[in-house]
Amino acid sequence: MPAQARRIALPRAARIGIATAVTGAAFALPLVTTVSAQAHEVPAAKPAAPAAQTAPAAQAAAPAAAPVEESYKVVGGDTLSKIAAAKNVNGGWQALYEHNRSVVGANPNLIFPGQKLALGTKAAPAAPAAPAAKSAAPAAQAAKPAAPATKPAAQAAKPAAPATKPAAPATKPAAPATKPAAPAAKPAAPAAVAPVAAPVASTSGFFAPLANPKLGTAYGVAGSMWSSGHHTGVDFVAPTGTPLRAVGAGTVVKAGNGGAYGNEVEIKLADGKYAQYAHLSSIGVKIGQTVTAGQQIGLSGATGNVTGPHLHFEIRTGSEYGSDVDPIAYLRAHGVAI
Questions:
Q1: What is the pTM (predicted TM-score) of this model?
Q2: Which residues are catalytic?
Q3: Residue 253 CA, distance from chain mean position
Q4: Phi then psi for 208, rounded to 5 degrees?
Q5: N or C end of the chain: which has fewer CB within 10 A?
Q6: Which phi and psi (to 5°) does residue 298 adopt?
Q7: In the chain, what is the straight-line distance between the N-terminal and C-terminal CA atoms, in Å?
Q8: Taking CA 292 as the corner, what is the angle to CA 290 and CA 294, rounded to the nearest 5 degrees?
């Protein structure tokens, strides 16, 4: 066989088929490469919607409870100072009087059984707050993530527009509140005891216990309403606020609350007898004070165990209850015309 390679003779149709196959393979290879590359690109998924925030709990405050006004009904034997101390009134009897000036009137020493006094206000207990509302759905139930984008990541949507400008600054704070009102005026000082009309003394220097005396229940009247079984003094008809005076010179041995007698004053007279004044609305002397005949010692009223304003007057041989003598006979014996 010769060294030069032998050419193989192929038919024309075979040569055309081989060439066609080679050319198709050349075109198919780039197409397969492109499809494979696109298959490996991961599409960009849109970020999941943020979880819903939990709604704040409802904190609707219950409406404030209206303040409660406390009051007190005056009974026999009461004074503003006693009521203020017993009811712990803030500011004492002066504050109690100032709060009830329209009820009591110009004289704080004149109060009457049945009057209704306001003691001030106390805040009512606050109602419990409404229960908090249930929170919003948890973040686990947030919106489902968006479907993946069809386009490759290189062609993702443009970034969102920049955030809007910050809101305008808040308005200036409101003008400061007006100045507090001027403090309330101090309560008026207790009214001075009205002066006694010029009394007329008897020839012995004694006086009637009040001007123009008018007799009520007499001394010695029997009845179960008195613990001794009879009336131990004499009652003089006198509206509340009538000035009372010492029937003779002496020393004050009692000046204060006497239980059923209400506000009372007792004077030891120069002759050793005792003059007792009961149911006063105001006391104008103190224990140990020396008084002269005709000097004003207080004002009549209706404190203690009474059915109305009057002066209960006694003359006693001793300081205590049960040592009474007829007061009208005693005064007449000393020249007092009653």
A1: 0.44
A2: 310
A3: 43
A4: -70, 150
A5: N
A6: 165, -165
A7: 189
A8: 140
